[in-house]
Amino acid sequence: MKIFVSRLKEDLENLKNISGLKKTEIEQSLFGSSDLENILTELWLAEEEGNLCIPLKQEWESLLTSKPEGLVLEGKGKDKLLYFEKTFRTKKALEEKLKERLSVVGKSKLNEADIVSFLDQLEMKPGAIRLKEGQKNAIVATILNPFQIISGGPGTGKTTVVAYLLSILKELGHLPETERIALVAPTGRAAQRLTESIRENLNKIDSTKEEILRGQTIHSLLAYKPYLGGFYYNKDRYLPHDLIIVDEVSMVDIKLMRSLLEALPDQRQKQVRLILIGDPNQLPSVDKGAVLGDFLSVLENKGKFVSKLTESNRQKLNRSGGTSKIVQLADFILTNKSQDSGKPVSIEKDITKADEIGESVSYPSEVVWFQKKEGFLNQSRDEILSQIWKQYLFPQVKRISEWKISDPSEIKEKSLYDKFSSELKKFRCLTTFRSGYWGVEGIQEKLSIIASSELKLQSKNSNGYIHKKLLAERLYYSGLPVLITENDKNRKLFNGDIGLVLKLGEELRAVFPIDNELYHFALDTLPKHETAFVLTVHKSQGSEYETVFFYLPDKLETNSNEKANRLLNRQILYTGLTRAKVQVILAGNTGSWDFGIANSIQRRTGFQI
């Protein structure tokens, strides 16, 4: 409390901008009312955790009858919720915009029988994807309604639905011109993945080949202009699109969704088809709000506007032909109950153990816990990293370094693109924290030390020599995965993009997949980047890998790390686990698993329509 009050005293102007309070009001609260001071503290901390509001406490009621400027009280059912005024205005604007989307939904000009007929024809084409019943229903509902949410877990075929949707709209003569279609996502990497997925599915359907359809970020769509202090497209200047598809909506915060909906024209003036896609069980947005969860909570009882996909196509059947353990465990995490005991899932009781790992290892289950041969469940960080490097990372580096690319022009060959993409999707290590000894930064540093030591020992005359280069005190070598951390729009490199360092001719270059082709760049011209052996689960959202090694770090014990510990939660376990198609290897601290299972993110927003 004292630390927080000190922060307010040092930065009154910043609090004024966040809360909507006048500076004098804050000063009065700090020096005149401990209750108001407590309210500001709780609201501030609640927003830091992604909430929009806090429940009213009885001891605050008399103070709030005077209606302090900058604070708003609103009822939701029997609850009374307290907001900063600025946040409350954003929430109300989003509620109104959603109601506007729903208010003008008349009888569709399209015929359901025609949609079903075209759908059947597309499914019969050679190589076309066979749809589940839920996907078919989603396609029909999305074509008939100008506003639709397609929700579902990983691998349930959400973008497959979109590909069929585009094809059928074209067959019906209702597909807008390409420049009037927007594929968007919260991040550049997510937008690129959306582009790749839709193009891949369209090619399988072989009906519509919109090769120039290209994803972009929501910020790019709305055209953020620093000189305007906001977006070019807004409530006064509408977007010129007729069809907008937004993927990974769980990552969209309340302010960005409000900006997007405000940039759409009134449905009574011009009908714009808006499709939102996402998984409500994944991690919520980094900034405030829980937009996808809120939208689903208010729409699911209306009988339309929402299509829920439940059957996963990502994970293969288990070794006995039943449901994959990955799918089973993901369901258990969400319900906080194991199938056998009805109690929270336990590493010790519910997860199969494995005392060795590696590319050639035949695992006893699709999800295993990596332990020592002596039977100890918990291993030190460095023991685990040594095994990851030896059994997965170094073999991959060696394999990639053996690619013979005598001329840079060869990277345009499709066979190399396929081999490149396969390696990127083969294996990834995930963890929860970003910084510190237990986080990505500490783990990458340790792996870099291991790699450097290994590469120093090799001889140029040995077989499988791995080419390396020291540049700006950073070691690069063939097979090294690289993660972009700063957007470079001119070269179409976006935060979250992952590429590989390859030897092209006699030079080491960074190679990235962009728009279904490989492009190479000089190492010293790359935007900000880092090694990508290990990612946070947040960074991995929307991606999929054959094998995921999910490292569970020790829970941080000091009170100052309470916020970091909240990253150990049910949603992060679910999201990390479901990045894998074939195999999940868990390791680290079993106590962190227990802590995460017991800790679920429930953001308080008060959203209602």
Distance between the termini: 35 Å
Strand order of the largest sheet: 6-5-9-10-4-11
Identify the overall geometry: globular
**Taking all residues together, what is the mean pLDDT?**
86
Helix content: 25-40%
Secondary-structure-based class equals alpha/beta
Rg, Cα atoms, Å: 26 Å
Outline the biggest β-sheet.
6 strands, parallel
- Which regions contain 5 or more consecutive residues with pLDDT less than 50? 1-13
Quantity of strands, as a count: 24
| Strand percent estimate | 15-25%
Number of helices: 22
Summarize the structure.
This protein is α/β, with parallel strands linked by helices.
Structure description:
Residues 1-13 have low confidence and may be disordered. Helices cover 38% and strands 19% of the residues. The longest helix has 21 residues, at 381-401. It contains 22 helices and 24 strands. By secondary structure, it is of the alpha/beta class. Helix 3 (23-32) crosses helix 4 (34-48) and helix 16 (381-401) crosses helix 18.
